[in-house]
Write a structure and sequence with these properties.
Layout: H1 21-41, H2 59-71, H3 76-98, H4 103-123, H5 130-144, H6 149-176, H7 182-211, H8 214-252, H9 263-288, H10 298-324, H11 333-337, H12 339-354, H13 370-391, H14 396-406
Helix pairs in contact: 1-3, 1-12, 1-13, 2-9, 3-8, 3-10, 4-5, 4-14, 5-8, 6-8, 6-10, 9-10
């Protein structure tokens, strides 16, 4: 029996850590949701993330955007991040079971991923997650390499709570000062100035994306990513680290390594996640409507906390549903096996469609079409991935990633 006190890697005699097909299915499902959410950000400056979702919509566009925000935004990214943590645990245990060295190999893997991320940011799209994943995985290696299984989920919860508590504390401090207080007035004036400057940067960035040359877009993307990292880093770095740790726990505890033995728990997560996550996310939406993250007002702060709690609950519900029914969704497995290739293909294709140096359709495709277009594109990726994986062992980017990691031709 697996002990919760067992450090990572010490349970290889209990579980079979060969490829788990339900994780490929789950990864393919997460890629669909990520594309669905990214559609909006292929049509907006990355710095506009500080303003939240688009509000200047009506009719079918409005309801489509709100539906995506309710059911998809911040729900699929946690799943994808948990899968990254699961991948770490599986690789480590496979290496230990085979008596192979791991950490030097994994560091090279992260360096290759960071390289892909830098190229993705500069040449394609500034909403990249690869570079961030590589950096945060390094933090996990340094600070949580030997964390026992029973503590992983506790550290994950602590990582999730840290940015929320910091946001609440900032709002509480700001609003504890009287309106006429000199410090509050200075802070409010700085926030307002930052907000106006942000609007100008967004306008400038969107103009470049619509009309600028490829070289101008490269400069803009690097600038946008730097702003995202500095303005969002304190919030997203601990959150993503928490998802990584929780993913490791899901494997080490056996829940995702042997899901058939934990079907009751997964079913409980499914109904609890839907029962809390759906109403929590729905209630939070109007609280954050037209709010932006540069000014810590209470509706935004409370809405953000409730929305993220609901998002984590829904992410766990989706994870449980897909895992329990993975045998019915095997058509998604090839997409998941080629996750890096398909993720980059989504960016390359749609940025080329929308940006001025491509087809120039920026802002011309209605929000109401985002859902059907996402379904159509992921369907094409299903067909392509199935065709490719019948002929080759790895996806093209997976082959290159493995070659750079192992410093040789993959076998």
């Amino acid at each position: 029996m697996h002990s919760d006190d067992t450090p990572i890697g010490h349970s290889q005699g209990t579980f079979n850590y060969e490829r788990l097909l339900h994780l490929d299915v789950l990864r393919g499902f997460a890629l669909f949701g990520i594309l669905l959410v990214n559609f909006e950000w292929f049509n907006r400056s990355a710095q506009a993330m500080l303003l939240g979702s688009a509000t200047n919509l009506d009719g079918a566009d409005y309801w489509s955007a709100r539906l995506i925000e309710w059911l998809a935004e911040s729900k699929f990214f946690p799943i994808f991040s948990m899968l990254f943590g699961m991948g770490f645990a599986l690789m480590y245990n496979r290496a230990l079971a085979a008596g192979r060295p791991f950490f030097g190999l994994y560091v090279r893997r992260l360096l290759a991923l960071a390289l892909f991320g830098v190229l993705h940011i500069a040449l394609v799209w500034s909403g990249d997650i690869l570079f961030m994943y590589a950096g945060i995985a390094c933090l996990m290696l340094v600070f949580f390499r030997k964390t026992p299984t029973r503590r992983l989920y506790k550290w994950a919860i602590a990582c999730w709570l840290f940015p929320l508590l910091l946001t609440v504390a900032s709002a509480a401090f700001f609003h504890s000062l009287p309106p006429e207080n000199e410090v509050r007035m200075e802070v409010a004036a700085e926030m307002e100035a930052d907000y106006r400057a942000l609007l100008l940067r967004i306008e400038s960035g969107e103009y470049i994306h619509q009309y600028g040359s490829f070289a101008e877009n490269v400069r803009q993307r690097l600038h946008d990513f730097r702003i995202i990292l500095t303005d969002f880093g304190f919030f997203w770095i601990p959150m993503v680290l928490g998802y990584f740790l929780f993913g490791r726990w899901l494997i080490e505890s056996g829940i995702m390594a042997q899901p058939h033995e934990h079907a009751h728990r997964l079913k409980r997560w499914q109904w609890w996640g839907l029962g809390f996550g759906l109403p929590a996310s729905l209630v939070a939406l109007p609280m954050m409507h037209e709010a932006h993250f540069t000014i810590p007002d209470w509706p935004m702060t409370g809405g953000l906390a409730l929305y993220l709690a609901g998002s984590i609950a829904l992410a766990l519900a989706y994870l449980a549903i897909i895992t329990r029914h993975a045998h019915r969704l095997l058509f998604l497995a090839p997409v998941g096996r080629m996750a890096l290739t398909n993720y980059l293909l989504q960016s390359v294709f749609w940025v080329t469609v929308f940006y001025g140096y491509g087809l120039g359709l920026w802002g011309r495709i209605p929000h109401a079409l985002f859902i059907p277009l996402s379904l159509l594109f992921i369907s094409l990726q299903v067909v392509f991935s199935r065709w490719w994986m019948r002929r080759y062992r790895y996806g093209p980017m997976e082959w290159l990633w493995r070659a750079l990691t192992r410093l040789g031709r993959p076998t």
